[in-house]
Design a protein that fits this description.
3 domains; 511 residues; 4-stranded mixed beta sheet; D-Maltodextrin-Binding Protein, domain 2; Dipeptide-binding Protein, domain 1; Dipeptide-binding Protein, domain 3; 21 strands; alpha+beta; single chain
């Protein structure tokens, strides 16, 4: 029963109770914008809020903005803010906090937001509860940045005129959300408690939320199985452990709630090197890999095979795009055509693959790829590293191939373009570290970025997808979906396109 259903039946959602969950790895801090890593987003989205959130269909929904309007020319966006909202320290939330957060704070500390916010020509606060942004040119996906995961609103009176990254207040975050930080024992737990002055009457329903820091995956699974925690999210539970929790009657396993993020995984290929720079060779790799096997046998159906460089959760996915099918014979024919004949050991070519150090399932994926590629005469040497080493080597182009995945953020301009355009070939992780460059792809992405109408953008993104599949700069593997597993008594866990990355002001334990 959702909160709305309970109210419709004349019953209030049940108040009280502590939600125990797990967070892994431990966040470095809880100030959104200064840090936007996954664990930070999950916890801090209960402390901070955005102007909007998005539905599972990626349509904007109100949070701190009760309503909004766009001018006919697509240049001006006007937000009407909620009244009676207070920061956790008792100060009033006003339009000045919004202007400061958007035009100063995130512009400095948040590269993903900056790429969109720098399109703003003018920001105004006609009164304490109205904000108006005028863009330099129309930008169709503008509203998608205003979710808390993209642009959390922070208190101007605490951050204005300070070093945002090193402000002492970062240790005690102050937001407008339904929960406030009560205690953080590093390496042990993070405890939030109800904000009794929350601006939605009667909410939140929970007394608090406690996240335990549990580095070991089997210990996390045991905590869920025995009821020590009532919810796990993201990477907490390995995909191969999910089936046993699906069979546990007191638990619910959800795969939705990732529509905004739409993470897509791939084999990242350094397009600068030897055979790897030849699109024929990359296509041979694609034909040698069984994406259905990966989705069903390694991820146990948590996610689905990739069908395009743009995830199917976004409105610009083109289902007519044809990815190279699993066909080892075709892979061998391509390699033969390149003159890569097998030696006495059956090896045609060799390269290294840097493993993604995100857990056991990713190690299993690398091992599967090594074996699958060996079947067509490609010898893969696996390289192990830790997370810091993986990020450093990826950023410095010190790899031959690796496994990677990134969020698509609801729109290809926001989350896909960065991986393929020549202008984003940087020594920075999660840019175009593969070094792929095609002037036509650059042109199409730029045209789609600047097009004011969704239909024109759809046409351009369709062309982009076809061109990328033709060039195969990467080998796309899976549309990832990280399971949210929770006690069936817990209601309203996932109601938006951001899943557990929401305020939880409507979450409650049913009797």
């Amino acid at each position: 029963m959702t909160a709305a259903e309970a109210l419709a039946q004349g019953r209030e959602p049940r108040r009280g109770g502590i939600l125990n969950s797990i967070i892994t790895p431990e966040p470095p801090l809880l100030v959104l914008g200064v840090n936007n890593q996954g664990p930070t987003l999950i916890v801090a989205s209960k402390i901070y809020q955005g102007l909007l959130t998005v539905s599972p269909k990626l349509e904007p929904e109100p949070v701190l903005a009760r309503s909004w309007a766009r001018s006919e020319d697509g240049l001006t966006y006007t937000f009407s803010l909620e009244r009676g909202v207070k920061w956790h320290d008792g100060r009033d939330f006003t339009a000045e906090d919004v202007i400061f957060s958007i035009m100063k704070f995130h512009m400095e500390v948040n590269p993903r937001a900056r790429a969109i916010l720098q399109r703003i020509d003018k920001a105004e606060a006609p009164d304490a509860h109205t904000v108006r942004f005028t863009l330099k040119a129309p930008f169709e996906p503008f509203l998608l940045i205003f979710d808390v995961t993209g642009c959390a609103i922070v208190p101007k009176h605490i951050y204005d005129g300070t070093d945002y990254r090193n402000n002492p207040a970062n240790a005690t975050p102050i937001g407008t959300g339904p929960f406030r930080l009560a205690e953080w024992q590093r390496g042990n737990f993070i405890r939030l408690v109800r904000n009794d002055a929350y601006w939605k009457p009667g909410q939140p329903y929970l007394d608090g939320i406690t996240w335990r820091i549990v580095p070991d995956s089997q210990s996390r699974a045991l905590a869920l199985q025995t009821g020590q925690v009532q919810m796990t999210t993201s990477n907490d539970i390995e995909p191969f452990d999910v089936p046993r929790f699906q069979a546990q009657p007191n638990l619910e396993v959800r795969q939705d709630g990732w529509e905004l993020f739409a993470p897509l995984s791939w084999i990242e290929i350094n397009n600068r090197l030897d055979n790897l720079k030849d699109p024929r060779f990359r296509r041979a790799i694609a034909h040698a890999v069984d994406r259905n096997f990966i989705a069903q046998r390694l991820w146990f159906g948590v996610g689905k095979p990739a069908t395009s460089p743009i995830a199917s959760a976004t409105r610009f996915h083109d289902p007519s795009v044809q990815m190279p099918a699993f066909n080892p014979r075709e892979a061998i024919a391509i390699l033969d055509g390149m003159g890569l004949r097998p030696n006495a050991q059956g090896i045609r070519a060799s390269f290294k693959m840097m493993q993604l150090p995100y857990g056991e399932v990713w190690n299993r994926l690398s091992e599967y790829l090594r074996q699958a590629l060996r079947q067509v005469g490609l010898e893969v040497t696996l390289e192990s590293t830790d997370v810091a080493g993986w990020v450093r080597r990826l950023a410095n182009w010190e790899f031959e191939t690796t496994i990677n995945f990134v969020y698509q953020w609801g729109d290809p301009t926001l989350g896909v373009e960065r991986t393929y355009v020549t202008s984003n070939i940087q020594k920075v992780a999660f840019t175009n570290t593969a070094g792929y460059s095609n002037p036509e792809v650059d042109r199409l992405f730029e045209a789609a970025r600047n097009a004011a109408q969704a239909e024109e953008r759809r046409r351009l993104f369709s062309e982009v997808q076809k061109k990328l599949v033709e060039d195969m700069p990467l080998v796309w593997l899976m549309e990832l979906s990280f399971p949210t597993i929770h006690d069936r008594r817990l209601r309203n866990v996932i109601t938006t396109g951001t899943g557990v990355h929401k305020s939880f002001d409507d979450v409650f334990f049913a009797a």
